[in-house]
Amino acid sequence: MNFLPTKIVLRIFCFILFGLTVILGCSKDDEESYDAIETSAMLKKTNAVAGTTSKINVAAVIEGSIPTSAKAPATIAFKGYGSINQGQIKSYFWDFKDGSTANTINASHTFKKAGEYAVQLTVKNAAGQTHSTTRKITITGSSSSSGSSKINVAAVISGSIPTSAKAPATIDFKAWNSVNQKDIKGYFWNFNDGSTTTKKNPTHTFTKTGDFVVELSVKNAAGETHSTTRNIKITGTSTTNTGSSSGGSTSASSSGSGSSGSTSSTARTSGNYPSNAVMASSFGFKSGDATAAFEAAINSGKSYVVIDKQSSDWVIRPTRFFNLSNMTIVFEPGVTLRAKSGAFKEGARLFKLSGARNVTIEGTGATFKMNKNEYTSGEQRHAFEMDMCNGITVRGLTIRDSGGAGIKLMGDTNSGYCQNIILENIRSLNNRRDGITITSAQDVWVRNSEFSGSSGTRPEAGVVLESDTANERLVNINFTNCKFADNESAGIHFSTNKMNGGSRSVSIKVVDSEFSNNAISPPSGFFPTEVEVGGGNGTSVVGGEIRFERVKFNGSRGGIVFTRKSANGFKAVFKDCEARNVVTSNSISPIRMEANSSRNTLGGIEFDNFYIQYNRDIPFMKIQAPSKSGNFDVKNVKGSFTVKEPGDNPLYYKGGYQTSKNVNVSINYKHI
To answer: For the whole prediction, is pTM greater than 0.70?
Structure first.
């Protein structure tokens, strides 16, 4: 009896449940796990029984404020309330891997011993089918054990690391999120393919197939070590078959349509991809201009399209695709989708999706590349734009050298917007305007991604969040485990000038991420800072919240936070953040609040447990406010800071403002 290939079953079921997954699994404001979302969105279990497919209709999702590491005894609250299709879940089972279990939907557990624990949640439906997911937690030595040696560091592996890739696979590994980096005296990576390195953030190429357990060990001054691992599966190489075919079928045959000389096709066995996959090269790849084959493949109506690696890049002219739906597009490792030189006028896009629905783009090891050096004016030559799309997942792409934004998410100027967008393991580098622009979107998750090196035309930021009209929206926008570095201006630029009190409230969250070496040389009118929080236009300010949690600022040239926001409207929150070695090139306060002439208040911001270290004799925070008699207030500002700087300078008010006019202002700090 013949069964459908497992990959096809998985893909079909994934599309059916995709919308439900996003709504039920991703709509909460709580921090969400990369592993949990990937599990709920992509890893639905199927069982082939007597020629039919039995689909499990539930999926486990672990949520909650769960640290990657903690000191014993550590009491942690685990949440199962984000699990998929809760109405069909009949039981929950937690295994904490230390001998303890629980069978409640949400469980609180205390880890008493040091070790690495892969906490597992299993859910079961009425048919007895189960689905499981895990969350890894490192518990370090107990802080209460007198006389015992306590290790004060912990290894954490981050970066755009796929779970699988084809050889040769070049992967960037990062240790920048390891715990207590200032106390780490050595890093050691073992790739378990015969290669090792002592670099902090290495790049490694796997040339052979196999399952590799990559291990990172960190060492403190006492010589104590802590290790963690990441599993990577390297599959067979994608090679061009230059010999004669002796009966082996290929899904990339040109069917007689290819022309000799300028057209090539890569032969590969049908087992590499689902049987319904179509190879883009089969539409007649031409090395000098592959636009026709590229467009024909994507518009072919096939549900699985592979942009297969050729002997040269996929060079294309501007492209735009309308209303694609329920399909997967794979850019093979080593593929470069390159902008044709001289073909991109201002406003042209390398790859644009309009009105797409339920499309997955797999791009691990592939690159979208434009020709930034050609674009000496303008800001609208974007590499990858999504316009009013819903249910788009993009993984693994490197996007670089655009004449505008690396990625743009937009709607129309009325009420249209992008929705349910997942961007994972993306690297957006060296773009002329910014790494990513979001003007109108809702329910966006950006994980394990990097936005670096923007330069050329304002605002020159890593991320730009700014709507073009009051009708657009920035709702439930999430960045997790991302890096914003080496941009000419801010790592994140948030502007609400076109919004007002009647706009839909904003909700933006940046967690477990790092800012480094931004504000290299900001354009005129932009403050040298890692994060710029705009204040709106006038006194009618959009409501909502922008929140930064467990964010690290490392090696900043300028300040770390700059805002002119009114105390009215949205709130800005910085919780459990730390800044080290900042203001290295500018004698400005790390945190600066500045009044705007069009507003009568300054504030609406909270700093909760913020550590700041720098080497300049300047105040850690400056509030510049006017002395308007009776017409201006600093309002709704709270802060708790620990500051290490050479002068032990106090909080500084400038501009003639009298602090007696403060309303609900409480800023506490201590110098160490």
So the answer is: no
Question: Domain for residue 507, yes or no?
Answer: yes
DSSP state of 255: T
| E strand residue ranges, 13-104 | 46-49, 52-55, 69-71, 74-79, 89-95, 101-102
**What count of other Cβ atoms lies within 10 Å of the Cβ of residue 501?**
15
Which element (helix H / strand E) includes 637?
A: strand 633-644
Nearest 5°: the CA angle 337, 342, 348 is 65
- One domain, residues 104 and 213: no
Structural domain of 519: 352-671
For residue 546, list its beta bridge partners: 508, 572
Quick: pLDDT tens for 588-644: 999 999 988 778 899 999 999 999 999 999 999 999 988 665 578 999 999 999 999
Using CA atoms, how far apart are residues 432 and 671, in angstroms rounded to an integer? 40
Q: Tell me: do 665 and 521 sit in the same domain.
A: yes
Quick one: tokens of 176? 């920048």
Residues 58, 521: Cα–Cα separation, whole Å: 51
* CATH number assigned to the domain comprising residue 19: 2.60.40.10
Q: Indicate whether 57 and 156 sit together in one domain.
A: no
Rounded to whole angstroms, the Cα distance separating 73 from 144 reads: 8
Domain annotation covers residue 472: yes
**Nearest-angstrom CA–CA distance, 327 and 322:** 13
Q: Coil, strand, or helix at residue 21?
A: helix
DSSP calls for 432-490: SSEEEEESSEEEEEEES-EEE---SSTT-EEEEEE-SSTT--EEEEEEES-EEES-SS-
For the stretch 59-114, pLDDT in tens is 888 877 788 888 888 888 888 877 777 778 888 898 888 888 888 888 889 888 88
Choose one of 186, 210, 237: the last residue of a domain. 237
Per-residue pLDDT tens over the stretch 285-315: 999 999 999 999 999 999 999 999 999 999 9
pLDDT in tens, 164-175: 888 888 898 888
Instruction: Say whether both 388 and 531 belong to one domain.
Output: yes
Say whether both 644 and 613 belong to one domain: yes
Query: Strand pairing partners for 423?
Result: 394, 446
Encode 113-144: b = buried (16+ Cβ within 10 Å), e = exposed: ebebbebbbbbbbeeebebbbbbbbbbbbbee
